[in-house]
Amino acid sequence: IVVDDAIVVIENTHRIFENGKVPIAKAAKMAAGEVFLPVFSGTMTTLAPFVPLAFWNSLIGHFMFFLPITLIITLLASLVVAYIINPVFAVDFMKPHVEGEHNNLKFDKTVRKVSIVMAVIAVLAYLINFGLGNFVVFAWVLYMLNHFVFVKWIDKFQNGAWPRFQNWYAGILEKAVRSPWWVLAGIIGLFFLSIVFTAIRSPKVEFFPEADPNFTYVYITMPTGTDQEYTNEVTRKLEQRVADAVEPDKDLVKSIISNVTVGVTDPQDEDQGSYPNRGKIAVAFVKFGEREGKSTKAVLANIRKAVTGVIPGAQISVAQEHGGPPTQKDISIEIAGDDLDTLTKTATRLKNFLIKQNIGGIEELIPDVQDNKPQIVFTVNRERANREGINTGQITQALGATIYGAKAADFRNTTEDNYEINVQAKEEQRHDIDAIRNLKITYRDFATGGAIRQVPISAFTTIEYKNTYSNIKHKQQRRVITLGSNVIPGFNANEVNQQILQSVNNFKKPEGVTIRQGGGQEDQVEAMTFLLSALGVSFMLILIILMMQFNSFGKTFIIISEIFFSIIGVFLGISIFGMTITIVMTGVGIIALAGVVVRNGILLVEFTDLLLEQGMSLHDAVVEAGRTRMTPVILTATAAILGLLPLAVGFNIDFVGLFTSFEPHIHFGGDNVAFWGPLSWTMIFGLAFATIITLIIVPCLYLLRTRLKDRIAGRKHDEYAAVSKEELAALNHH
User: Fold this and answer.
1) First-to-final CA distance of the chain
2) β-pairing, 514-517 with 581-582?
3) Has residue 59 got a pLDDT over 50?
4) Which residues contact 649 (CB under 8 A, 6 or more apart)?
5) In the structure, what pLDDT confidence band is assigned to residue 731 with cuts at 50, 70 and 90?
6) Under a CB-based contact definition with an 8 Å cutoff, are residues 602 and 627 in contact?
7) What pLDDT does 162 receive?
8) How far is residue 361 from each of residues 281, 357, 388, 486, 583, measured CA to CA in Å?
9) Within a 13 Å sphere around the CA of 72, how many CA atoms are in the beta-carbon half?
């Protein structure tokens, strides 16, 4: 995309230069001036779709923020380069082509000089680094291949194959513009056919792309109040089961590490506290390039099978690391209300109800609120405490100091550093309820003349053992309990959530309680809403830019129609190859595609206008414009597609290893292809089809638009009676 402007300017310069018939300096000025407006408008329409993406105000939007910003800055810079730097380079390096100059290539003086210079550079490079020296030698080999081989191939292609291809295309375009209505009807029919075909194929839809796991986590949650030592024993047993499960694929596993109490929550959770009743087992896999084509998703499935349901009373979940922006669980059912007891009972009923529905893909529905958190309640007998001259504040302070400690004094050393001195009960006393009950409160009894007395807490308190709720959450001023679960690999999260929604609609809930789907589904709806609005804003911005350039609704409609018809390629490509539609990346790809595809349409329409102004007939103008602009149209589309292909297929090569040890470590796939693949394939399919639209449909639409305009105005227009392209070429040369 970045080189598109340079391609258009240089190709136009080469066309006008026409092998030295026009001085290169004059040709460069004419070429830059001729395409100034279309190149500027094309760049602005390419930028337009990325402007609303820069204002995506969400976690995903913040994650994607640098994509639109980087593209906007880079494309603006490419515009400056195309207008200023490229014409200067053209004047310096573009030389007339002498026919037959590449037929008898020799190891001449120029080649010898270049070889000597590069040999010296290679020797110096080898002294610095072996890989750097190899790189210089590789550059020399490329130079020699270009001088003795590639230039011959390029010469044959430019003077043989390419002109024949241009003439072939011109013949097809001649037939198309003679039956423009049939061409238009065909493309409209193909548009609806692609929609129907996509509906029949029904590709899977997911919110965000998910790659093979690099890490797999086993989360263990024991009943609240479980001792840390017991949690550690359970975690060790599960760790052994995990080790046994990965034994057949041990070459994929780098390490297995267990945690208890600390670092046991999901890294993306806000809650990163310490929990004695929790544990976590982390399985790290080797790099993608070292897996020899094996999938770690199968290992994750084996781990899940090995640990599920083996520890009674424990909640065990297995998940992979989250790629991309922080997102909530795929399955998240929010139960909101005011009465906490009603909410907990409803959550339990709903969980059991969904289990009975036997919906595939649900790992385990776990509520985020537990009602079995143990606590010890000290109830103060105020009457007795008042008789002793003690208030509840003193009791609370004494208990807090015993269990958590209290500041007793400050210590300052000779360097004037200040240290707090904290005092608390011994550890064995802090964990002994009898010792706490016998804790003596020291106070001064003014009723007996200020004598100092000590009274145990048990003298005026009673103790109760109760269970209470843990971490109660609120949303929009209402209490909320969330049932969350991961989706088992192999199942589609959207399909599972759709089945859950149907079941929830049949669930009888109490008065005052609302049930809705949140989490990943909520994020997905929000993302889809924004992307649709961003597409609408992009469409309006492109419309404004085109209207400012052409001042014609008809010409603007011709170019805008490319956006809709290019989606045919996206639908057909995804459906034919059975790809998955990812809401975020496919959506961003379609929005980006909207700006890219109109660029070539601008070039074609603008050049057709120029030929008509110079006196060429309507028929010849649309055909000649297509034939002339075919080169930059195909070049820009090919450059974009080739640039996207490595991202689409996940092509990886280690250039440092290639030149230092001759081991390039080439492989395909990985995290990048999972993330960027949907966006890349969307743009590749759309651009490939948009190229056909530009070269065939745009000339036909231009012809129909002019005919319709003349008919409305009551003018009779002879499409063939005008200056021929040969006469026009002679006039231009003159």
Assistant:
1) 36
2) unpaired
3) yes
4) 668, 669, 673, 677
5) very low
6) no
7) 86
8) 22, 12, 63, 8, 20
9) 13
DSSP run (H or E) holding 602: helix 583-613
The reported pLDDT for the residue numbered 67 is 87
What span, in angstroms and rounded, lies between the C-alpha atoms of 45 and 42? 5
**Helix (H, G, I), strand (E, B), or coil: what is residue 333?**
strand
Question: pLDDT averaged over the chain?
Answer: 83
Q: What is the pLDDT of residue 438?
A: 84
Region 171-184: mean pLDDT is 90
E strands, 104-210, where?
A: 205-206
User: Alpha helix (H) ranges present in 614-719?
Assistant: 618-649, 655-660, 671-692, 698-713
The helix-helix angle for 553-576 and 519-550 (nearest 10°) equals 150
Show the beta-strand stretches assigned E in 210-314: 215-221, 253-261, 275-285
Q: What is the pLDDT of residue 282?
A: 92
Tell me how far apart the alpha carbons of residues 517 and 331 are, in angstroms, rounded to a whole number: 8
Tokens encoding 719: 């499409």
The rounded distance, in Å, linking the Cα atoms of 665 and 714 is 69
SS3 label, residue 418: strand
Burial of 718 from C-beta contacts in 10 A (0-12 / 13-18 / 19+): exposed
Q: Are 493 and 332 in contact (CB under 8 A)?
A: no
In what helix (H) or strand (E) does residue 318 lie, and over which residues does it extend?
A: strand 315-320
Phi, psi dihedrals of residue 394, rounded to the nearest 5°? -65, -40
Cα dihedral value 653, 654, 655, 660, nearest 10: -140
CA–CA gap between residue 694 and residue 42 (Å, rounded): 14
> Tokens 């609240």, residue?
224
Higher pLDDT, 501 or 672: 501
Q: Strand, helix or coil at 410?
A: strand
Nearest 5°: the CA angle 719, 724, 729 is 140
- Nearest of 330, 321, 370, 560 to residue 470 by alpha carbon: 370
Closest listed residue to residue 308, CA positions, set 500, 488, 499, 490: 488
- pLDDT tens digits, one per residue of 656-677: 888 888 888 887 877 778 788 8
Domains in the chain with CATH codes = 4-96+179-207+524-733 (1.20.1640.10), 212-322 (3.30.70.1430), 374-468 (3.30.2090.10)
pLDDT at residue 734 is higher than 50:
no
Amino acid at 418: N
CA torsion through residues 551, 555, 557, 563, sign: negative
C-alpha dihedral (568, 571, 573, 574), degrees to nearest 10: 170
How large is the average pLDDT for residues 638-663?
87
Q: Tens of pLDDT along 403-444?
A: 888 887 877 776 667 788 888 888 777 778 888 888 888 777
